[in-house]
Write a structure and sequence with these properties.
Radius of gyration: 25 Å
Distance between the termini: 74 Å
Bound molecules: nicotinamide-adenine-dinucleotide, uridine-5'-diphosphate-glucose
Protein name: Nucleotide sugar dehydrogenase
Organism: Pontibacillus yanchengensis
Number of helices: 20
Shape: elongated
Structural class: alpha/beta
Amino acid sequence: MKNIAVVGTGYVGLVTGVCLADLGHHVICIDVDEEKVSHMRKGYSPIYEPQLEGLMKKNIEEGRLTFTTNHAWGIPNMDVIFLAVGTPQQQDGSADLTYVQRAVNDIAQHINRDVIVVNKSTVPVGTNESIQQYFNQHVGELGRVDVVSNPEFLREGSAVYDMFHGDRIIIGAENEGAALLVEELYRRLKLPVVKTDIRSAEMIKYASNAFLATKISFINEISSICEKVGANIEDVAYGMGKDRRIGTQFLQAGIGYGGSCFPKDTNALVQIAGNVEHKFDLLESVIHVNNRQQVLLVKKAKERFGSLHGKRVAMLGLAFKPKTDDIRESASVVVANELIQEGAYVTAYDPIAMPNASKVLNVEFANSTAEALQDADAALIITEWDEFKQLPLSTFSEQMRVPMVFDGRNCYTLEAIQESYLEYHSIGRPVIGEVDLHKFEYTQNYLSEHG
Ligand SMILES: NC(=O)c1ccc[n+]([C@@H]2O[C@H](COP(=O)([O-])OP(=O)(O)OC[C@H]3O[C@@H](n4cnc5c(N)ncnc54)[C@H](O)[C@@H]3O)[C@@H](O)[C@H]2O)c1
Ligand SMILES: O=c1ccn([C@@H]2O[C@H](COP(=O)(O)OP(=O)(O)O[C@H]3O[C@H](CO)[C@@H](O)[C@H](O)[C@H]3O)[C@@H](O)[C@H]2O)c(=O)[nH]1
């Protein structure tokens, strides 16, 4: 069992640290965010991620997991140092490597022996070679550093599960001994290991995310054609996915992909490809389709009402996907801002993500689905939380002023909708029901005039 430091304790670093500790290693998680660290020391996870907190507490109690803000305490005497800091998007779409550079500098200052630095941050091809050169120049006589690229493929909302049951572990290394040692760290997981050179490992990460994003934009384009020709995207995706060469996963049509990875990684790969010789036209279209898809519900609602000015709109779901409190690049942010711009009054509800959303969204927040739907003229479903999928459809008709639903995640079967009193617009499927908007307008005018 090895002594491991993990630098950067966000989604990737914390899950990596906790899971490596659970495999039996001694892990010190280092983060510059003092509040986060003091929280984690007490066994509280700063992020909502199923299974994570329980596993964290267990490994703290069993003495294999500690947290610090102090690189000088965490870095010396380690066998392996994982790097898992953020690589956000810059204005031009390329990856911002500021945090990586700072963390590498922090690590270099405190290395006192031979060590392997394993990079899990998603970085442009060539970055890990630059990191290797930096260590070669700055660590000197105190120890030899071997940099290994080990990109991460976990999904938020199922991160712990993915760590233990991933499809593959990618190890990119120039030094065979370093690659073997990293493989050994994960041995108990019994997962397939792909060993390659560093540049190919870096490329595997970007290419994988770009391909998955392409699948989503492809099925979203097909869903628009389904709407035009009267086909049903659910049946089309199922029928396509049964072909094992295509596969059923990532063919869920909706209001586009969000999150901290697909948007930034697709943009970064477009930048890596460049503007002239290898211009990545296909991926640029994927991004364009996704931007269009994120505003689709607002477009549909606007078309249906004529104008959204003064309408009360309920937004169900804010997280970029279920089972996470992350709203980074979520369609909800785009949708809320569009609605506000159109002059609508927005009330939003999300089972988990409201504290994060309240930092960036200027909307009203409700305490429950029913409260959000109260007197609404339209409901927009943004995230397919089970809570919404299991909602009796009568809740919409009972709570809303106008029972008009725009479902961006196809949460309900058309059969169930047919038995409800809703007008229901979804993605790539026929519209069901038709409310008489004149009747509702008349009632509203009558009530406002006569009290
Ligand atoms: N979030 C995901 O699902 C996911 C999955 C696979 C890969 N990735 C990649 O992994 C990397 C990390 O992503 P994330 O979502 O975990 O980021 P994050 O923003 O959640 O966490 C990064 C953490 O690093 C800390 N940090 C920054 N500089 C530091 C330093 N010098 N020393 C110590 N700590 C420092 C920050 O305080 C923060 O807590 C990114 O490159 C991302 O693209 C993310
Ligand atoms: O069929 C689908 C599948 C996903 N999505 C959307 O795509 C986004 C991303 O979903 P998902 O991939 O499940 O979550 P992430 O946590 O962003 O994980 C992706 O990004 C991570 C960061 O790089 C990688 O590690 C993972 O392998 C990769 O799946 C979300 O907005 C989903 O709603 C769809 O619209 N349709």
